[in-house]
Design a protein that fits this description.
Blueprint lengths: L2 H12 L8 E4 L3 H12 L8 E4 L2 H9 L13 E6 L3 E2 L5 E2 L6 H10 E9 L13 E5 L4 H9 L4 E5 L1 E2 L2 E2 L7 E7 L5 H9 L4 E4 L1 E2 L5 E6 L2 E6 L4
Parallel strand pairs: 1-2, 1-3, 3-6, 6-14
Antiparallel strand pairs: 4-5, 5-13, 7-11, 7-12, 8-11, 9-10, 14-15
Protein name: Ribose-5-phosphate isomerase A
EC number: 5.3.1.6
Subunit structure: Homodimer.
């Protein structure tokens, strides 16, 4: 089964959780591009939602399919957020930001009463940073100094993300530093170090944020729920 089929499988399962009248946080990335038309199609079943999008790209796609969209500052709550991830560990902690929308994703996902993550089974890892670099959004003004500070952290190698030979720029006008982690590193400790560096807006660690992960596997959909503390 190809990867797109696995992604479609998770999207089909996710739409079952969308109810009429919801304020819906809509993520960013290749899986969500497949999900958005399915959200629009729910209107044929008289299920209408208001979307709050994590990127300009998702907003444009949703509006082209006549999904009503509001800005995050114009809503008081989000009932459900649905997004993808780049890695998921056994405790449903995530690395996100491969699409460069990590700050907006974190704002919306943390606001949501429920946050469902859609991934194919390749994204399952033993620990965060095992297969994917950690994205960190930084201000362009002092990004070189921030990169030097990050490089001083043992086991971490930062590199500025580029696109077509130019610095990748987020919807917020910032750069992304992708951090290669050479070993298993405590996510909470590294996040705390990074978030206190002047010029760092946010990191791609999403710890204790997801309430549910829907995996697309060769054997069908697997749903895993966050255990209550």
């Amino acid at each position: 089964m190809d990867v797109n089929a696995l992604k479609e499988m998770t999207c089909d399962e996710a739409v079952k959780y969308i109810k009429d009248g919801m304020v819906l946080g809509i993520g960013t990335g290749s899986t969500i591009e497949l999900l958005v038309p399915k959200i629009a199609a729910l209107q044929e079943q008289s299920i209408y939602v208001t979307g709050v999008c994590t990127s300009k790209q998702t907003k444009a796609q949703a509006e082209s399919l006549n999904i009503p969209i509001k800005e995050v500052n114009d809503v008081t709550h989000i009932d459900l957020a649905i997004d993808g991830a780049d890695e998921v560990d056994p405790d449903l902690n995530l690395i996100k930001g491969g699409g460069g929308a990590l700050f907006r994703e974190k704002v919306i996902d943390e606001m949501a009463d429920q946050f469902i993550v859609l991934v194919d089974e390749r994204k399952r890892v033993n620990y965060l940073g095992e297969t994917f670099k950690l994205p960190v959004e930084v201000d362009p003004f002092n990004w070189v100094h921030v990169q030097r500070h990050i490089a001083s952290y043992e086991g971490v190698t930062p590199e500025r993300r580029e696109q077509d030979g130019e610095p990748f720029v987020t919807d917020n006008g910032n750069y992304i530093l992708d951090l290669a982690l050479s070993e298993k590193i405590d996510p909470k400790a590294l996040h705390e170090y990074l978030i206190h560096l002047t010029g760092v807006l946010e990191t791609g660690y999403f710890i204790d944020c997801a309430t549910q992960v829907i995996y697309g596997t060769e054997n069908g959909v697997e749903e895993v729920f966050k255990e209550s503390n």
